[in-house]
Structure formats: C-alpha cells, structure tokens
Amino acid sequence: MGASGTGKEVRGPLTRLMIVAVVLTLWTAAALGRLTYLQLFHYSDYLARARRQQQRIVEISPKRADIFDRNLQELAMSATVDSLFAVPAEIADPELVARLLAPVLNTSPEEIESRLAGSRSFAWIARKLPPATAARIRALNLRGIYFQQEDERFYPKRQLAAAVLGYVDIDEKGLGGIEYGLDNQIRSKAGRVLILADARSRWYDSSDKRPDAGSSVVLTLDENIQYIAERELAAAIAQTHARAGTVIVQDPGSGEILAMANWPTFNPNAVADGPPEARMNRAIAALYEPGSVFKIVTLSAAIDQGITNADEVVDCQMGAIYIAGHRIRDHKAYGLLTVSKILANSSDVGAIKIGLRLGAPKLYDYIRAYGFGSPSGIDLPGESRGLLRRLDNWTPVSVGSISMGQEIGVTPIQVVTAMSAIANGGLLYRPHIVQALRPPGDQGNTSPAGQAGEDQLPQPAPVRVIQPTTAATMRRMLEGVVLEGTGKLARLDGYTTAGKTGTAQKIDPATGRYSSTQLIASFVGFAPINNPVLTVLVQLDSPVGPHDGGAVAAPVFKRVAQQVLAYRNIPRDVPLALTAQNPPRASKNEVAEAEVSDFDPVQLSDSAVYASPAALAAVPVSQGTAAGASPGATPEPGAAPTAEFAEGDGIVVPSLAGKNVREVTEISLKLGFNPVLVGSGLVQEQQPDAGATLRRGGSVTVRFARPVAAASHPASHAISHPVSSPPPAATPKRAAGDPSGSGQ
User: Fold this and answer.
1) What percentage of the chain has pLDDT greater than the value 90?
2) Which of 294, 530, 544, 666 would give a disulfide with 241, using CB separation of 3.0 to 4.6 Å?
C-alpha cells in the first residue's frame, strides 16, 4: 500500500510537468506559426502601417533653374526662404499658439487652429515667409513650431519682361510665359522631408533631400533693349492715355526677339497685386484689325506677281469706290497716284483697286505665306492664330476690305514678322525668344550665350515669301512713307528708315459697327534700309486725342529705334543733321549701366507693384532711383542712395564688393535684409557701407556695373531719351459710320 501510494505521488508531479510542457510547446508553436504567418504573408501590410504612424514625407518646393537674357543677366532666379510648420502633438495649447501667430502672419487664429487640428505629426502653417516675419516668429520661441527651408522664385528686375517670363504658384509650378512653356525643363523634381515620430506622434528626427536642379534658359532678349522698349511704351501710354500697348523689337535676319514690351504690366514677385488682364502677353495674344499696315501685304503680292510696279499711276477716284454696292471712302480725296504714293499716303482706294486686280485667290495665298491666319510658332504659350476666313467664306466685298486691313485679325508678332520678311529680302523666319538651354551642371558658367555646353535650340529654315527684287522695291516704297508720307515722325537721325503707319477702327460692341472714336494706332518699320538690323512694331490701343498711327505710334518707333541702334553701335548710313538739332546723348557704356537699373528699386516687401505708366515713364534713363525716392526724382551729383538705418543695435552689414546679383540676393535674404538691386554686373557701391548696422527687414541698396575692360566701346554713337510729347499732327476727318477706317 505504501509503495503504491508513493508511485502515485511521483506520477502526479511528472504528469503535471508533462502537461505544462505540452501546453508551452503548443503555445510556442502557435505563436511561432502566427509570427511566421504575419512575417511571410502580412509583412508589407504591417510595415506600411508602422511607417504611416511613425513617418511623414512632406514635399517641398522644387528648385527652378535661372532664366537669363542673351548677355547672361539674371531675369529670374530662386532664393532660399523659410517656411513654417508645426508638430501639433508637441503643442500643449493650440489656441494660445494660434493667437500668438495670427497677428504676425496677418491671418485669423481660427485658420491656424484648423490647420493644427488636421494632423498630429505635421501641419504647414505658412509657406515662404519674408525674412522679417520669420525673425519675429523665431523670437516667440514656441514649442512645436519649426522652420523648413524652401526655394522661392525671385525676379530681380520686377516688371521687366514680366509677360514673357511669366510667374509661378506657391509650389513653384509655372503658370505663364517661359515659366509655364518650359516648366518641365526649368522645374526640377520636388524635394522631400522625412519626419520620424514616436508612438505619441511626437517628432524626434527629420532628414531632407534637396531638390535637383533643372536646366537654365537663355533668352534672345537683351535686358537693356527690353528696358528701352518698356520705358518708351510707358511714356506713350502716359501721353496718349491709351488702354493698352505693345512694342516688339526683332532681328529681321534671324527672327530673334530682342524686346517684347506690353502694357498693362505686372510684378511677377507679387502677381496677386495686379489685375488679371495685366498678365496677358498682348504681343502674341491680342487680336486686332491691322488697318493700313496690311497694305504691305497687298502691294508686295501684286508687285511680286508682276501685276503692278512702284511707278504705275492709279486713279484713286477722288477718295471713293463702290464694291458690291458698298461705298468705301478714303481718308483724303486723292486723284492720280503712283503705287509708291498710294503706300506713302496710305490710300485705301488705291490699295483696294490693286487688290481687286490681284484677285482673291492670289491675295489669300500671299496672306497665308506671310504667316497670317496661323500661329507664328514663337516659343511662348498662349499665342493666338489670328482670324482669317477660308477663301470659300469670303464675300464680294472681302477683297476690298482685306486689301486695306479690315475683315482680318492679326497679332503684333505676326505683323512684325511679316515686315521683317520684307526687310531681309523676302524670307520669313520663325520668331523665337529662347536661344538655348543650359544643363544643370553648367549653372554657374558665365561664358557668352551659345558656348559652354549650351543646348542650342534648332530653328527651322526660313521660307521665301517674295522675291528679293520685290523686297527691294518694297523697302524703297516704305522709305517713302517715312520721308514724305504718313510716317514722317518716325524718321531717324543718322539712319535710313522705312515703315508703315496703321490706324484701324475697332468694332463697337453696342452697335456692331466700326467706332469713330476707338481705334488701334500702329507703326512698324526697320532700319537701316540697306542692311536692316532691327524691326520695331509699336501698337497703341484706343489712344485719346490724336489717334493716327503716324501721330502717336511713329514717334515711339523713333525713340526706341534711335536708342537701340546706338546701343548696338550700328554705323550711321546718312549724315547727321546740325548739332543743335542733335544734342549730345549717353554712350553705350552708360546705357549698359543705367538702362535696366532705372526701374523702381527691387524690394521684396514693396507692395506698390502695379506702377502707373506716368510713374514708369518719368524714370530718367541716366539716373538711378534710390530706395524710398520717387521714380521721377533726380539725385544730386554725388548723392548716395538712401537706405533704412536701424536705431540702436542691429545686424552688421557685410561687404558685398565684387559679388554678383545672385550672391547679393542670397546674402541679403539670409540676413533678413531687403535687397535693392540697381544695374547688372558686379557690385560697385553699397549703402549702408560694410560694417554699419541695419535692422532686420531694412533695405540694402546695391549698385552693380560691368567691369570697365568689358565695356570699352566707342561712345561716338548718340542715344536720345526724349519723353516730351510729339508735335501735334493734323487728324484726317472721317464720316461717322464710314466703313473704311484704315486711314493712316
């Protein structure tokens, strides 16, 4: 009995141990099985969940490459600025933080609170802050509030070529002009910030991947010529009170656009501050009837076909002609005129009679050959194709109307390109404004355009429109327009000049008929005649008072062409008039230093970005504008530009001597200054001087200039900058409701 009891007692613990071992084995097997199942079949799912809880990837603005003019002067660049974000899990009192940040950010506390409530790990509060604003927020020293550096687009010349350059949104995506058209090349891949958080969504680490660089763009524009065009257009707008206007300067021998000015304009640094219509590039998108300018197409086609010649006499029927029962009247009662005089005096009746002899099919063919009715192909987005009805849809009166520039819609770029074809001997070049793309590894190269590994964009071969002999005949006839016709006010000093005036009535939306008061005044011409180096178009929409192209547009052509020819050191081909009639003017060296710099100073914090034409026109060409000075003010000799000095302690201003525009911009923004950039090249002067103290947010005025050795051009060619009103010219009378309207 004892032995038997002892055996039961021994077997009892062993049995229990065996049971425990079996249970543990089964539990371990189940756990291992479950782990194996999760690891093999649900690994990616749970890894993704963990990353969502612990990691947050935030994209930051990509870095956009620079945009240069043909001389490699920066027109658009990117600067590093601070953006503000929060880790809401670290903020104990979101309501208090929102109340503290709201007045600094000029927003409502409710908006900031809603952003903080949207996520526990990351929330953008404000993007791309001004340096002064970022400094004020840093001074608050708020827990859970952090800064992330991003790239912001900056246009150091402000309004200069704004419609051509375009603008970008908050994420650095191009929304207009070159910025939009070449967005894929300029814009790099977005940068990324990786934020790591613990189980309570508290941020404990981060790492960022800076965005790659895109390809820089070299334009055919010359910033000095662009400034001349914009300044003279602004002067014309202020003088004539026109609603809008355009000036284009083109190289007739290549199709390159040297300047493209539009009014109204805007500051791409602050797009929202200007009206939406100011963003339109009127040079390629504004549709209008060309008026008498279009007679160059009618007459050149007839001469090219051998239907007429410059000396043939045509009866202009004392200024009236009937076509399909419609009476068309001339702006003046002309009798017998040669074809040259028809062009010089801009006779509608004479042009119509030649157009009727040419016939609708041939006229239509030449219109299309000149590029009207289809896009010119310029490398800018938003171009209009114009308006040209198919030949089958022409009415019996269409030949007469189109011959004098009505019943057809054109754009300024189409007209200047057509005139360039006559200037260069009959070849139609595709207009272009992009010269080359620079690869990312060649951003810092300052070699002249066309070198240093640039990707030169191929251009199509020109197309012959008219024979060289026809072009030569037209050039002499167009010279007659300037010497003895409607374009006398376009005559240049020291250069042979050719061109054509145009005055086209606009359609009155209320009546559907041509208006007797709303007109488009234009002039397009080239110089010198035997070896043209530039073609200039001037177009003014609805000028008040004198409205003929010869009275308001031709003088603008003269001022622009005179300065550009001298700036480019083009030799004169006719003797100068008396010295008293041609006062001394600035040399090319002075223009190179002063032209672009005479815009209103560049200040990031400046809210007055939509200047009036009078203010812009008042800026003197040979004087810079100091920070805080009125645009028309002329500083006394030796006077230093003004700057905003601090009272008491401030930030020490470093020496900027010898630095370029980009370096000055980056240094100023890093220190919290607003750079006021005057000119181009390398730093020559700065105010305040190095070592002075300046409060954060103050302005540092910096004057740039090119090295003397690189600007040693002869100063024999004169440059005039007249802004006074042209002498009044007689305005031809036209009967109300008269359907002609091409006038001069």
Assistant:
1) 45
2) 544
3-state secondary structure 24-72: HHHHHHHHHHHHHHHHHHCHHHHHHHHHHHHEEEEEECCCECCEECCCC
d(CA 499, CA 302): 18
Whether pLDDT at 319 is above 70: yes
- 160 has a pLDDT exceeding 50: yes
What percent of the chain is modeled with pLDDT above 70?
76
Q: Is the dihedral of CA 138, 140, 142, 145 positive or negative?
A: negative
Q: What mean pLDDT do residues 627-652 have?
A: 40
Nearest C-alpha neighbor of 288 from the set 334, 338, 242: 242
Query: Is it true that the peptide bond before 732 is cis, omega within 30 degrees of 0?
Result: no
d(CA 645, CA 667): 18
What's 690's DSSP letter?
T
3-state secondary structure of 632: coil
pLDDT for 723 beyond 60: no
Q: Are 542 and 518 in contact (CB under 8 A)?
A: yes
Helix axes 348-358, 360-369, angle to 10 degrees: 100
Q: What's at 141, amino acid-wise?
A: N
- Count other Cβ atoms within 10 Å, centred on residue 484: 13
- Tokens 């602004």 found at: 234
**How big is the chain, counted in residues?**
744
pLDDT: which is higher, 642 or 73: 73
The residue among 49, 466, 79, 429 whose CA lies nearest residue 256 is 429
Nearest to 354 by CA among 310, 289, 308: 308
Instruction: Specify the 3-state DSSP secondary structure of 432.
Output: strand
Report the SS3 class of residue 604. Answer: coil
pLDDT bracket for residue 728 (50, 70, 90)? very low
DSSP-derived secondary structure for 84-134: EEE-GGG-S-HHHHHHHHHHHHTS-HHHHHHHHHT-SS-EEEEEEE-HHHH
Read off the pLDDT of residues 239-272 as tens digits, 9 standing for 90 and up: 999 999 999 999 999 999 999 999 999 999 989 8
Could you give the CA distance from residue 559 to residue 562 in angstroms, rounded to a whole number? Answer: 5
Q: Which distant-in-sequence residues (6+ apart) come within 8 Å of 600 by Cβ?
A: 158, 606, 608, 611, 615, 616, 619, 625, 631
Determine the 3-state secondary structure of 437 from DSSP.
strand
The 10s digit of each residue's pLDDT in 180-223 is 999 999 987 665 666 555 555 455 445 555 556 688 999 999 99
pLDDT at 22 (0 to 100): 86
What does the alpha-carbon distance between residue 23 and residue 598 come to, in Å, rounded to a whole number?
Answer: 90
Alpha-carbon distance of 68 to 507, in angstroms, equals: 40
The token duo for 178 is 């070159």
Whole-Å CA distances, 634 to 11, 231, 500, 622, 627: 115, 16, 37, 9, 13
The pTM of the full predicted model, rounded to 2 decimals, is 0.75
Extract the tokens encoding 432: 């272009």
Query: DSSP assignment, residue 331?
Result: S
Q: What is the model's pLDDT at position 455?
A: 65
Q: Exposed/middle/buried for 148, CB within 10 Å: 0-12, 13-18, 19+? A: middle
Largest CA distance in the chain: 155
Contact 188, 62 (CB under 8 A): yes
Torsion over CA of 257, 262, 266 and 271, rounded to 10 degrees? -70
Cα 524 from Cα 536, distance rounded (Å): 6
The H or E element that residue 354 is part of is: helix 348-358
Cβ burial of 521 (10 Å; 0-12, 13-18, 19+) is buried
Residue 738 in this model has a pLDDT that exceeds 70: no
CA–CA distance, 281 with 234 (Å, rounded to integer) = 16
| pLDDT value, residue 512 | 78
Lowest mean pLDDT, pick from 419-428, 554-563, 671-680: 671-680
Could you tell me which of 408, 412, 414 has the C-alpha nearest to residue 507? 408
Supply the pLDDT for residue 700: 82
Give the tokens for residue 4. Answer: 């038997």
Residue type, 284: I
